[in-house]
Specification:
With 312 residues, this protein is α+β, with helices and mostly antiparallel strands. It has two domains: 19-164, Adenine-n6-DNA-methyltransferase TaqI, Chain A, domain 2 (Alpha-Beta Complex), CATH 3.90.220.20; 221-311, DNA methylase specificity domains (Adenine-n6-DNA-methyltransferase TaqI, Chain A, domain 2). The chain has seven helices and 17 strands. Strand 6 (86-91) and strand 7 form a beta hairpin. The protein is extended.
């Protein structure tokens, strides 16, 4: 956003400048609390009581894992939050959000937002937008936490007209719904792929017309093996070869640009090579196998206790 506070892209019909305001001027920030766990009369009541671990996976929440009683509410700093409150986690995991579908309470790990106007969806997405700011403002030695005053003091630039806020919230909500719908399809395809991998490589399923038994071979007999090297001191902003590091693989196993290059003469990875990048600790190896689709690459272990190798 520029200093003039006018967005470059916006809905038709809006031309007013956006306003720079402190977040506390637009929402009421409310903390939570926990009744004494040793008093059974404070628990298993009818009041929903959320903890931060229950937030962040769904946009809307209504039912909590535990509930407190009226006595528990009255003997703690927990407060009743109305429907359409934005639950905002403020400690340990900071900035996870959800919108309440009914009245709830929370523990002290929240600084929840009650919008002073009716643009709940807009402020829900604004909360996601300023998560980085909240993390920078957080402090604490045992665990990070952001205070109510720090949240209230965050400067935000928002539309001056309520209708524009509503349009923005609605548009982003449609995008969220589309992502969720497509994610279901992706999850189904991943499950199908997992099934195919199991059945095909266990030789339970085969293409029609193939009956010959599979061969048991050592990997070294069907591919060349090559370790990576340590090239960090040779990295340049532009160069002949792109450097593959452990950060060059996304969560889906796709090769992404590392932004690191070298010019020195080394053995490179050609098209069709399968770099295998993995992290080892005492219990769990985490592996990614990716394929070089185009261009020439070289690769590096990048950090100690981490290793890269390739099958050519």
């Amino acid at each position: 956003m520029s200093e003039k506070m006018t967005p470059n892209v916006r809905f038709k019909g809006f031309s007013d400048d956006w306003e720079q305001r402190k977040l506390g001027d637009a929402v009421n920030v409310v903390g939570g609390g926990t009744p004494k766990s040793s008093n059974p009369q404070f628990w298993d009541g009818e009041i929903e009581w959320f903890t931060p671990t229950e937030i962040g996976t769904t946009k809307y929440v209504s039912k909590s894992v535990r509930r407190i009683s009226i006595d528990g509410l009255q003997h703690s700093s927990a407060k009743i939050l109305p429907k359409n409150t934005i639950l905002y986690t403020s400690r340990a995991s900071i900035g996870d959000v959800a919108i309440t579908k009914n009245k709830v309470t929370t523990n002290q790990g929240f600084q929840s937002w009650i919008p002073k106007s009716e643009e709940t969806e807009f402020f829900y997405y604004l909360a996601q937008r300023i998560k980085g700011t909240a993390l920078r403002l957080a402090s604490g030695s045992t665990f990070k936490e952001i205070s109510s005053s720090n949240i209230k003091g965050i400067k935000v630039v928002i539309p001056s007209q309520s209708i524009e806020k509503q349009k923005i919230g609605k548009m982003l909500g449609i995008l969220d719904a589309t992502i969720a719908s497509n994610q279901k399809k992706v999850d189904q395809l991943k499950t199908l792929k997992k099934l195919f991998l199991q059945k095909i490589f266990d030789q339970e399923w085969r293409f029609r017309g193939f009956t010959d038994p599979w061969e048991q071979r050592k990997l070294k007999d069907i591919s060349k093996y090559s370790n990576g090297g340590s090239f960090e001191k040779d990295v340049v902003s532009t160069g002949k070869y792109e450097l593959i590091t452990l950060k060059s693989v996304d969560i889906y196993g796709n090769l992404i640009n590392s932004g690191k290059f070298i010019d020195k003469s080394v053995t490179t990875l050609k098209k069709g090579t399968l770099p295998e990048l993995f992290t080892r600790n005492s219990k769990i190896p985490i592996k990614h196998m990716i394929q070089v689709l185009d261009g020439d690459f070289t690769f590096s272990p990048f950090k100690c206790r981490k290793r890269a190798s390739a099958l050519v």
